[in-house]
Specification:
Elements: H1 5-9, H2 13-19, H3 28-35, H4 43-60, H5 64-71, H6 79-82, H7 88-96, H8 104-121, H9 139-149, H10 154-177, H11 186-198, H12 204-207, H13 219-235, E1 239-242, E2 248-252, E3 270-276, H14 290-304, E4 312-318, H15 331-337, H16 355-361, H17 368-372, E5 381-389, H18 394-398, E6 402-408, E7 410-419, E8 423-424, H19 436-454, E9 459-461, E10 465-466, E11 474-475, E12 478-487, H20 490-511, E13 514-523, E14 526-527, H21 530-541, E15 549-552, H22 557-561, E16 567-572, H23 589-606
Parallel strand pairs: 3-4, 3-5, 5-16, 6-15
Antiparallel strand pairs: 1-2, 2-4, 6-14, 6-16, 7-12, 7-13, 8-11, 9-12, 10-12
Helix pairs in contact: 2-3, 3-4, 4-10, 5-10, 8-9, 11-14, 11-23, 14-23, 19-20, 21-23
Length: 607
């Protein structure tokens, strides 16, 4: 029989605890202390209570309670698992992942991994083997994850083990509540499935290696556009078009539209949302695409319930955001803001194909007039909201599924070179060297200290280093480098830049070196609209979650729409410590479901 929250909120504590027996492996005290905080309005609130109980006990015992919980779990594919003598919950999970039916080779591999892992860390390897969708990882995926995590740092691995334990508990809690529960993540599973389907379209050379790459107007990119358009129609959008830059635009009209007396017709306001569907080379499945399908799941629900909003909802699947094929990042959203650069049309890709020719080959006009016509009139729009996977570790480390973005960081990029004197590595004394690479190394540490301590909340990265004509036995005479600086406000970014410039000047003066430094890109910060940020905060709180506010260090389509509309973003937690632009990028169906519910709440606030 499926549980309800009322059954947990109303009976005496021992009776309620018995209903959640087995949620945490051999550790009923976590549930007991969490349920002492009743009543709970949502499953997410109950899960957060369990997380904070363990967190508090871990702090009180200097981590001993967490290690004890980890050690209470069984090894994967152990003899006990094969004999099915584990707890009922563990037996079910390992069986779902096929770990009780390993081949002899797989069993031998897992036994060696178990032994190596335990020898390195002192506890068993913990993995929610039912995976992000809840339907089970393959044995190959489990082994690959095992091999990767075997090389992690002990502190990081302990934290990851605890996160996996909470994920296991989340899935067990969903099992106890059943598919008929109002908290069953059906919409999140649908969003997850849509993204999996879309990921079948990729550029052939990458797909052959099991990688995902979708660059602007490639065959794979056009196949994605077709797939998104089809899904939009099936979900219930009233109109679906592919515009002059390849954006897929789906509209769900407002009240009165079907009767010909719309409250939100051509002259009324519309809420704009969406994100991009192109990828970086060998990227992830959820970057950008999550922000297309979360609002689309809301449309599907509205359509199924025959409901209309007092305003239209326009979902834009932006054709390009990553700047992979052409040096024209945000070209798709730039078309909507009226800032599309006409010179982009004549840019050439690596094969010498101009953007104009690529557009025309894809059946698009390839003319500035057609692109200029895409500009949105701000008067006709309420604002722009975007859902996006976080692409960072903060939500993952905080054990929170959602976060509200306060600002998209302003950034500046530079290319520099330090010039010293190349000399013999064996005969030049350390005190007499003009080492260009050593100066850049010192700059890297200077920027690290500046961003960490003097300009808190900023980030600074030297992502490229090159010693031209370098040799193992030559003191570097030249060193080229890049510099990427980001901060929540333009003033803070500029202060960090000034700090880095002064640091480079002082380093080179002290070492007797010359340098050049050229700014190549500057983007203004895009602070969230206070009104729209407050709506996201209310939507997150309505799910029973703490509201975490955080800046976005990465650029997003919302940054461009900020030029003409008030905007705000919602972040969704990523697995694997929030890694993105990587095949390991992932998120769970449960977290996606909470994002859908938050978006639905935002829509009801406007109704």
């Amino acid at each position: 029989m499926s549980l309800t929250l009322e059954q947990l909120n109303t009976p005496p504590l021992p009776q309620a605890c018995a209903l959640l027996d087995g949620l945490y492996e051999h550790s009923p005290w976590i549930v007991e202390r969490a349920l002492a905080q009743r009543p709970f309005a949502t499953l997410a609130a109950l899960q957060q209570a369990c997380i904070r109980v363990l967190e508090a006990e871990g702090q009180a015992t200097q981590g001993a309670a967490e290690v004890a919980l980890i050690r209470s779990h069984p090894e994967l594919a152990s003899k006990a698992a094969i004999a099915r003598t584990l707890t009922a919950e563990s037996n079910h999970e390992q069986s779902t992942a096929g770990l009780t039916h390993c081949t002899p080779e797989e069993f031998a591999t897992l036994q060696k991994l178990n032994a190596d892992y335990k020898a390195r860390f002192g506890w068993p390897f913990i993995l929610a083997v039912r995976g992000p969708r809840g339907t089970g990882l393959t044995r190959q995926q489990i082994i690959a994850t095992f091999e990767r995590r075997l090389h992690g740092h002990p502190d990081a691995e302990r934290s990851e083990s605890i996160r996996q334990i909470h994920r296991i508990a989340e899935l067990r809690l969903q099992d106890k509540f059943g598919t008929s529960s109002p908290f069953h993540p059906a919409l999140g599973q649908r969003v997850w499935d849509w993204q999996e389907t879309l990921a079948a379209h990729g550029e052939p050379d990458y797909l052959a290696r099991g990688e995902l790459t979708v660059t602007y107007l490639s065959e794979a990119h056009r196949a994605c556009a077709t797939q998104i358009a089809q899904t939009m129609r099936e979900a219930g959008c009233d109109s679906v078009t592919i515009d002059a830059v390849g954006n897929v635009v789906g509209r769900y009209e407002g009240e009165g539209w079907e009767t010909g007396n719309p409250v939100s017709g051509p002259d009324a306001k519309t809420l704009l949302t969406g994100s991009h569907y192109d990828t970086v080379h060998n990227g992830g499945k959820y970057d950008g695409r999550l922000g297309i399908y979360v609002p689309l799941a809301c449309v599907q629900q509205l359509h199924a319930q025959k409901k209309r909003l007092p305003h239209a909802l326009e979902i834009v699947a932006f054709a390009e955001e990553e700047g992979q094929r052409y040096k024209a990042t945000f070209l798709a959203s730039s078309a909507l803001t009226g800032s599309f650069d006409p010179t982009w049309l004549e840019q050439q890709d690596a094969a010498g194909i101009t953007m104009r020719a690529a557009m025309q080959a894809a059946g698009l006009p390839g003319t500035l007039d057609a692109i200029s016509a895409l500009r949105r009139d701000p008067v006709r729009y309420l604002g722009f909201v975007e859902v996006h996977i976080e692409q960072g570790p903060v939500l993952n480390q905080q054990q929170l599924p959602l976060g509200v973005v306060t600002s998209i960081n302003g950034s500046v990029r530079l290319l520099g070179e330090v010039i010293g004197l190349a000399s013999h590595a064996g005969t030049t004394p350390m005190s007499m060297r003009a080492d260009a690479a050593a100066a850049v190394a010192e700059l890297i540490l200077h920027v690290e200290q500046a961003a960490t301590h003097r300009h808190r909340g900023s980030v600074g990265t030297v992502g490229k280093l090159e010693v031209p004509s370098g040799s193992i036995n030559v003191v570097p005479g030249r060193c080229r480098f890049s510099l990427d600086l980001r901060a929540p406000t333009d003033a803070q970014r500029d202060a960090l830049l000034a700090d880095a410039q002064e640091g480079l000047r002082a380093i080179c003066e002290r070492r007797g070196l010359r340098y050049t430094l050229e700014e190549t890109m500057r983007a203004s910060a895009a602070p969230s609209s206070p009104e729209w940020q407050a709506r996201w905060e209310a939507a997150v709180a309505a799910q029973g979650l703490p509201v975490l506010r955080l800046p976005s260090g990465a650029g997003h389509d919302a940054m461009k729409l900020h030029d003409i509309l008030p905007q705000a973003m919602l972040f969704v937690r990523g697995e694997n410590n929030g890694i993105s632009h990587n095949p390991l990028e992932s998120s769970t169906a449960e977290d996606m479901d909470l994002a859908v519910r938050a978006f639905q709440h935002l829509l009801t606030q406007l109704a």
